[in-house]
Known about the structure:
The protein is built from six helices and five strands; from the N terminus they run ββαβββααααα. By secondary structure, the protein is an alpha+beta fold. The protein has two domains: 2-76, Ubiquitin-like (UB roll) (Roll), CATH 3.10.20; 80-162, Orthogonal Bundle (DNA polymerase, domain 1), CATH 1.10.150. A hairpin with a 2-residue loop joins β3 and β4 (54-57).
Amino acid sequence: MSITITVNGQNHSIEASPDTPLLWVLRDHIQLTGTKFGCGIAQCGACTVHLDGKPARSCVLPVQAIAGIDIVTIEGLQSPEGKAIQAAWEDLAVAQCGYCQSGQIMVAAALLAVNEEPSDDDIDAAMSGNICRCCTYQRVRQGIKYAAKNMNSKSVEYNEIEEGQLGA
């Protein structure tokens, strides 16, 4: 069956069964491999993409359910929040192995889009569904706070993180 979807601002016409998970359409048909397969049951967050700006788990979402919805993957994340999160991840070396990080970044960017100054509790609640086998949770939280502060002040120094001014 031919299905047309919009990914990162571009229309893609693909041949796939309507019940094919969006994750596999992205990876196998469109060749966007930044979105990762983790668990296949929407429990780990590695497959997170944005659907009309909201985070969603692509591993369980049938492609037939996304007609007319704007899909953004890690490769197309260009929002101010997304750019701030990506810069924070680089500045603070948040990732360890990096496998889960595209999903972490997608959720973090969606959080900052609705809450420019998240508390630790806000961050923990938003990120609670994202599993990191390397346990970089504290670094993820610092990265989100760093990105939020950078978005708001435009001048965050790395030493603020080292001195613990952004929290643990």
